[in-house]
Amino acid sequence: MSRTRLKDALEFIGMAAIIGSLIFVGFQIRQDQKIAVADTYGTVSDSALQLAALINGNADLWRRGLDGDELSLVEQIEFESIAAAVESWFIMQWYRSRNLGASNAETDLRDFSMALYTHVGLRRYFEAKSNRIIYTDTSFGVAVELTNWTGGITEYLDYLTDKAVPVPENKSYVFWN
Length: 177
Fold this sequence. Notes:
mainly alpha
């Protein structure tokens, strides 16, 4: 075998090895992503159990708060704390979907938007939180930047409002499962 042919054969084997290595790395990355997604299910389940326990001890307050009933100052603080925990659960789901491809991130935005649209008290919480962020940014002379989450929710709420989507008669008070 001539030197040129030997050199060509070795180069071909080297390129094949590089391509094989890249394919292996691709499979490994895909497998690591699947493992990461699977690992997050435990976190999601734990969070859902914590929400259930939190609301179980405050079910009447949760229902009255969602319905927009008059709440005392202490009850309002408790309701907003629960609402923040529920929103955090949705944000975690959305972030997980968005970054790991676990599900459709837009579904998470739509689900929370529908919950806000359906429950006047939850919508008040969300709008107060958004207004507080706007007020804080404006007070410091910083350009108001809504996160992708808040901006997406706001767009879906505007859509639901513009279309005058009817609120269901039988509301769900547990809307994150």
